[in-house]
Specification:
alpha/beta; 38% helix
Length: 284
């Protein structure tokens, strides 16, 4: 249950897709003066050193964010990826890319003083790293060492009645797929106007294949689905072949923004001829 460490995957192709979408959602929500909450159900460690530890050992960032970083001066880089790079630059100095911000750090540096970031992390090592990372932040941030699926039930709707809920479990256990569905269903009943961002892996598993259609049935007329596949399934059926983001109540501009960014990702991050993207929406 506690074997997953996001640092091993920090900055990989899945993070590029996930965080490109999250930055766009945060930019949209900050356009209004009224405050809002960000709730991260599986927050991880907050900030990752790509030159040391798990991230350096895996080298997955080389096939993900390093490729975007290398193109940051290219005028052809899509606007959404430029926006992501601008947020990553906040954590780095000069031309070297060493530090990669996870979703909590991205949210923390984009939120305003009147907004609030609430994070859940059950992994004992990750939760300690998360608390240490935000130790000097005295306002606007709360961290609970708890199951984010269960914790979400008690805090919706958030006091300002505006919010972004990021649901990002590791999917190490098959039960995570079921819990994503049940948690989102209950959350929408409590807070139907919230923005929800669900990340999922593209792996050789039936639960992964079925999840997008199951999510669509929860929010007819209010969803956007984007996925990026970077390679074909391996012969042994192991490995992360891509990932997807399912958004409930997306901003109407998000489809057009991702229609520009996703082809670039396929061309520049894709590994083989099976690299492809899906972009679909039922916003009415």
């Amino acid at each position: 249950m506690f074997s997953y460490r996001h640092g091993f995957h920090a900055g990989n192709h899945a993070d590029v897709l996930k965080h490109t979408v999250l930055v766009q959602l945060l930019e949209h929500l900050t356009q209004k003066d009224t405050p809002f909450w960000v709730v991260d159900t599986h927050a991880g460690g907050g900030l990752y050193d790509l030159a040391a530890g798990y991230a350096a050992k895996s080298g997955e960032a080389k096939g993900g964010i390093h490729k975007v970083w290398a193109s940051r001066s290219d005028p052809a880089l899509p606007r959404a990826l430029q926006d992501l790079i601008e947020q990553i630059e906040v954590c780095n100095e000069g031309d070297d890319l060493r530090w990669y911000p996870g979703s909590p750090q991205l949210a923390a540096q984009m939120l305003r003083p009147r907004d609030h970031l609430r994070m859940y992390e059950l992994h004992p090592t990750e939760s300690r790293a998360l608390k240490a990372h935000f130790a000097d932040v005295k306002r606007g941030v709360s961290i609970e060492v708890a199951d984010g699926f269960a914790g979400l039930k008690g805090i919706l709707p958030p006091p300002p009645k505006r919010g972004l809920v990021h649901i990002d479990p590791p999917y190490e256990m098959k039960d995570d797929y079921r819990r994503v569905i049940s948690t989102l269903k209950e959350a929408l009943a409590r807070f139907p106007t919230g923005v929800y961002a669900v990340w999922y892996p593209i792996v050789a598993r039936r639960e992964s294949d079925l999840l997008p259609d199951q999510l669509k049935r929860l929010a007819p007329g209010k969803w956007l689905h984007a996925s990026l596949r970077v390679k074909a399934n391996s012969r042994d059926g192991l490995g992360l072949n891509g990932s997807g983001m399912f958004i409930v109540n997306p901003p109407w501009t998000l489809y057009e923004t991702l229609a520009e960014a996703l082809p670039w990702m396929v061309e520049n991050i894709g590994i083989d001829d099976h690299s492809a993207y899906v972009l679909e929406s039922d916003v009415k």
